[in-house]
Amino acid sequence: MIKKHHNKWLLIIAGIIVTLIISPVYAASDNWVDRVPAVSRNFDFEENPGIVPRLTIEEYAIGDFQSGEIVRLQLQNAEWGNIDRLRTEVEIREVESVTINQLTSEVLELVLNPTEGRGEKASIRIPLYSKTTQAGLATVTVDPFGGAVSGGTYPFAEVVGSNGDEGVQVSLTTPGNEQLQLQMEDVVNQQRGAYLVLTEQVPNGIPASGLTFRVELQNAEWLPASRSDLNTNRMKEATIIEGASQVKVENVRRVSHQVIEVALTREGFSAEAATIKLPLYLQATAIGDLGVRVSLLQDGRQSVRLNLGEVVQVEEATPEIPEEPSVPIEPTQKEVVFRVGQMGYWVNGVPTTSDVAPYVKDVGGGSGRIMVPVSFAARATGAQQVDWDPVSRRVTVIKGEKTVELTIGDAALRVNGLIAMMDTPAEIQPVGDGTTGRTMIPVAHLAKALDVQYTWDQITLSATFFVEE
């Protein structure tokens, strides 16, 4: 009896071994999509068959697919289109038949019947005739039902929103989200903390082919390239990107005084949406709303106007000059007098020649500023050195331990590196035949920068500097 039972167990074990040897071992199939085009929202691949992506499902080894293999294909950010056309254009190899049924607008069910005794791998190639519905990445998910087909999700289109609300949302942010209030010539820089915010509404909303935004100002100008501290290169360098690290700012280009173009790209796919914060470096130029209009160049219909604040007029007298010196003039002081409209100037009553006359510059609102030549006024009030750089159009004045720098067309006055804003920029006044000129700035700001007291006589239109000997 013991021996008989022993033989029985040997037969059972041998049967199990034989079963393991002859039973097929199913490997995963190879699945892939042949292309991932960048398209717009509501894009219909049936109307554009030349770029329709195709999904291939191929058995890993000959004989892996069994008769009646069931596979479901589910779309995300897209819906199936013309199934009859899909049925006629599906490509099969070593497959006797394939049945395709539509379960929902996003789901198809396929039943595969491979060829018996085939000599090549069985495969099916399916055109993804569909219509995109949402911005982001359109994908097809292969969902097997216990057969040899492997599951997975495969991108087949990058969808860019066409109406501005699915792809990238545009907004502005300021400290405390409060509207900016600027005066004429005020500069918005890092300290003011104004940002243009571009936010992907879904991951990969910015396609690998890139997006370019046109940003146009109202009542303000972008700072020129000569402002190396606040130009478009600085804006690009100071941009903050949160979320998807694959998104990059490729370029920020100044097209005109009011317009820049911001080019964004993406390198690879991401599971996170990106937020791009671009600092806004600009200067107020006119009274009114400080508007920002953002347009997507890839779609001229997508445009939004945002309000950053307003530029206001400051009421002031004509001309409003700093108060007269409160200290008495000592006998050791030298008097230097410049008169509006008169060539030359007077030092302690002695006339000295110059080739340009001071004048009153209208700054709007019934106000004016007395403009004097930097070179003559600085040297007359004790400056040891006045230099002109024709490349950068910059004047440098050195007086004792003070270094004063100003640039033509710029209202920023730098004193030992610290910036003070003038209410009108430095400018060139032509002299002689007009081929040369003199740099002119407001007398009040020059006097303050050089620590020189002065008075203004409204009757004689004279500005008198008092210089310590």
From TrEMBL:
- Name the coiled-coil region(s): none
UniProt domain Copper amine oxidase-like N-terminal: residue ranges = 347-460
* Gene3D superfamilies according to UniProt: Copper amine oxidase-like, N-terminal domain
The highest taxon in the source lineage is Bacteria
Show the stretches that span the lipid bilayer: none
Q: What is this protein called?
A: Stalk domain-containing protein
Provide the species name: Anoxynatronum sibiricum
